[in-house]
Design brief:
Number of strands: 20
Helix content: 25-40%
Largest sheet: 9 strands, mixed
């Protein structure tokens, strides 16, 4: 067995790469392990784009975390050789009393976030790609934007390795065992020891930590070529957007960054085993996306030209689960984020590092703790 390190991280996607970056920069001896070679297209952190917004309709408690994440992404971009973020704004669309509009407005008012309310006429005038009825309204957050997830993970991993972290790719964790001095982690190829363990395995978290109330959801995303005038979908003219088209049912999309306009459902996917996922969109799924896109967005090609599959790791209440293991405090669970976690990864990584080094996270994580062993 090799000499022990301070922290082992299982999973080097969004949360794991960020944790490795911040821990290594704080002088911790870090070993990260991933069953693939991130950034990769098998989990939850690919697809070219992710929305980052602070007028958070899910709950105002996320706003401080979102604000810190914004700052850290910009710092990471400045330290890297790549563009990680583009400020496009974000439109929250729905009925006036919908969760996506009313919730975003609540967060904006509570936390003094710059925003603009648009009625149906103004929404049509400024963003003619949307096919809306007279009862539809929107909250525009001009400061929001788009992260490029593969670039973000690559920047975190390169920064972590530059600060001394070791990353082991293409090796699967087969078991871990706690002891009085920390943990022993066994993989298909080796065995490692550390004082602390962070499990950031995304859809595979339930394989690593038993008896967690998680369900893995398969999500299809598609890209459509814009018809003329294509510039209506340019990032300078069209923000990222989230639309609650029926109560509790959401679609979302992005402007065209050169590969077409991205379009997807948020939830409403099939529950799957992460080790047995159909990674190709079926013809009937493509038909469904084509129908949905025609119903809500004007100016797109009749059918998508590309598609991808990603995975959500859902908790029962769709909030995050970030906490010490209820029986083994040397172990932190840090990635079941129910399909809306990527934007926060920079700040969650910083807080995980502070939790281990200083004994407390930078941002209060109380809302994301175990509750009687369940969420």
């Amino acid at each position: 067995m090799r000499d022990p390190v301070d922290v082992i991280i299982i999973g080097l996607g969004a949360m794991g790469s960020a944790a490795a970056y911040h821990l290594a920069r704080r002088g911790q001896r870090v070993l990260g392990i991933d069953r693939f070679a991130p950034p990769h297209a098998f989990g939850s952190s690919h697809g070219g784009s992710r929305i980052i917004r602070t007028a958070y309709f899910e709950d105002p408690c996320y706003v401080p975390l979102a604000r810190r994440a914004f700052d850290l992404w910009l710092e990471l971009e400045a330290a890297s050789d790549d563009r990680l973020f583009e400020r496009t704004g974000c439109i929250n669309i729905g009925a006036e009393d919908s969760a996506v509009v009313a919730g975003a407005l609540t967060s904006a008012l509570q936390h003094d976030i710059a925003h603009e309310m648009l009625d149906a006429a103004e929404l049509r005038r400024r963003f003619p790609v949307f096919n809306i009825d007279d009862e539809t309204v929107a909250l525009l957050e001009p400061g929001a934007g788009v992260l490029f997830p593969e670039r973000c993970i690559d920047a975190h991993l390169k920064g972590a390795q530059a600060a001394g972290a070791e990353c082991v790719f293409n090796d699967t964790v087969t078991a871990w065992e706690p002891d009085s001095d920390g943990v022993c982690v066994k993989t298909a190829k080796s065995e490692y020891r550390a004082g602390r363990l962070i499990v950031a395995a995304g859809a595979w978290t339930g394989n690593v930590i038993q008896n967690l109330p998680l369900r893995v959801e398969r999500q299809v995303v598609c890209w459509f070529s814009p018809d003329d005038p294509a510039d209506r979908f340019a990032p300078s003219r069209l923000p990222a957007w989230v639309w609650e088209h029926d109560p509790g049912h959401f679609i979302y999309g992005f402007p065209d960054f050169g590969e077409g306009a991205k379009f997807a459902r948020h939830h409403d996917g099939k529950f799957v085993d992460p080790d047995a996922v159909d990674r190709d969109a079926a013809p009937e799924e493509i038909d469904d996306f084509a129908r949905l896109a025609r119903a809500y967005v004007r100016g797109l090609a009749a059918r998508p030209h590309a598609s991808s599959v990603c995975l959500y790791s859902n908790t029962p209440d769709f909030h995050f689960l970030i906490d010490e293991h209820p029986h083994y405090p040397q172990v932190i669970v840090a990635s079941p984020c129910s399909g809306h976690g990527f934007k926060f990864a920079s700040a969650i990584g910083e807080s995980l590092a502070a939790w281990i080094v200083d004994g407390a996270p930078v941002i209060d994580m109380g809302a994301f703790r175990f509750q009687g062993g369940e969420r």
